[in-house]
Amino acid sequence: MDQRDGSKSQDLLTSSPRVVNVGLEMFASTLAAGGVRVVHVEWSPPAGGDSRLAGLLEKLRT
Amino acid sequence: MKSIDQANQEALKRILDGDPHLVDVVSAAQAIPELTDRMILHAGPPISWERMCGPLRGAVMGIAVFENWASDLDAAAAKAAAGAFAFAPNHHFGAVGPMTGMTTPSQPLLVVENRTFGNRAYCAINEGLGKVMRFGGNDAEVLDRLRWIARVLGPALGRALRAGGGIALKPLIARGLTMGDEMHQRNVACSSLLLRQLAPALAQTATSTEELAACLAFIGGNDQFFLNVAMAMGKALTDPARNIAGSSVVTAMSRNGTDFGIRVAATGDRWFTAPVEMPAGIYFPGFSERDANPDIGDSAIVETIGLGGFAMAAAPAVVGYVGAGRASQATAFTRAMGEIAVGPNPAWVIPAMDFAGVPTGIDIRLVVETGVAPTINTGIAHREPGVGQVGAGVVKAPLKCFEDALVAFAETMGVA
Question: Could you tell me if A57 lies within 8 Å of chain B, comparing CB atoms?
Answer without folding.
Answer: yes
